[in-house]
Request: fold
Amino acid sequence: MPNTVINPTRMELTRLKGRLRTARRGHKLLKDKRDELMRQFLDVVRENKALRTRVEKGLERANQSFTVAAALMSQPAMEEALLYPKQTVELEMDFQNIMSVDVPRYTFQTSSPEAGDLYPYGYAATSGELDAAVEALGEVFRDMLALAQMEKTAQLLAEEIEKTRRRVNGLEYKIIPECEEGIRYISMKLDENERSATVRLMKVKDMILQQAQEERRAKGL
Amino acid sequence: MSKYSIAVIGDQASVMGFKALGLDVHVAEDTEDARKALHDLAHGDAAVIYITERFARDMAQDIARYKDCVTPAVILIPGKEGSLGIGMRNLENSVMRAVGADIL
Reply:
């Protein structure tokens, strides 16, 4: 560990070992989480892409009809025809939990006086193209709502995956190696201390023995 | 479960039809209008905001602000000039962000 100073003590060693165990476990769990999130994300994104293509096509068709209708009717007349909608849309939202990410789920309810009666205008003053345009829009709307749900889900999952990936990498390349190095450093240092203690004892024993011999020799003489 | 509204922001010709469906339509003349409408709606009760790509192109930052929030979902739709491919590109960006590579 280059920057931080660790105390080479047994207590520190135990602490670091505990930390390493936790980090390893966390790393494994987060990695599993990332993999599962990724799997779900790819499903969502594929569906999202298909939906978007469909919605864009549908809207294009609706817009074409509108353009034709606008050519056949005057602008004020058309605006007037669409001014007061007959049906209202209410959106309900609840949440679905995907791997602890709350993603929204939309359900919508339309309230119109009669089923299938979408057109907020009388047929006398408007062209048939406008009916077709509104109908096309009504058809594509269901897909549009599904698209909103998918797209939001994809965005939220992408954020969570990014976060999880950073955590996994942080643990894998930073925390775990640091712990391992710290543990190696401490155990080396402790071993070294132990060896030096043994050597010192041997040395002291030698010195005591030498002293004793010299004393005996002095008495003998 | 609570009630939310669905809003559409765009130019007159692109969003006119949504009014007939009973959506909350906001006609914007320029990007500044659209930006204001977006922020107002986001702080209101709109859960889904559709915005035409032509406006979205110039206000990417404003839209990015709501990307990581649960509400509102800001969804790009093609306007009357057809798809500009921005919505699709955003989708690819989110894949890039999650996976780190474009795999679609």
Observations:
- Chain B has a mean pLDDT of 85.
